[in-house]
Hints:
By secondary structure, the chain is mostly helical.
Amino acid sequence: MSNTQDINTIIQVSKALIKSGVETKKELAEKLGIGQSTLYKRLRESKELREVLKDMSPGRNKIKIDYKIVDNLAGIQCTEEEIATVLGVSVKTLQRDEEFSRVYKSAITKGKKSLRRWQFETAKAGNPTMQIWLGKVYLGQRDPKDVRVSTPEGKKLEIETHNKFDDEFIAKTAAILAECGVFSAGTPDDVDAETK
């Protein structure tokens, strides 16, 4: 068979294989029963073959990501790692895909909004646990904390705790503790040094 006949055969069979779903030059070479180097040699020799294969990628098949699955999984707050496992791809493959990033971020946000809405609906329906929890999260409400200290004389001492310890609070606390004989009163800096 001459080189021209060989190229014409490759062109005709390639067209049929492309129609049947072959997407890469690597896969095409395997189906043709020739090495990739032979296929590339024929490409250099034939403008017509180059035209037939111009849209074909050289390597692996392009991974198709099912964005509906991504939307559903991200909507229930699945991580990228979990979605990659379900789709059978690497996390890096997902992160390189612009459409994945768009769908993932959108679905994560929608999922959080839905969860927040359900929480508020549960609270509005009278669930006291959800009402307390939402009050803590959104309103900064906290359970009161009482600290009880017994002094050597057996006196009970109640101290209100604060999230933020300012100099005035530390000084008042030091004075109360000194009065009970726990340690001597000093400046707030002295109290800091003794409590560290």
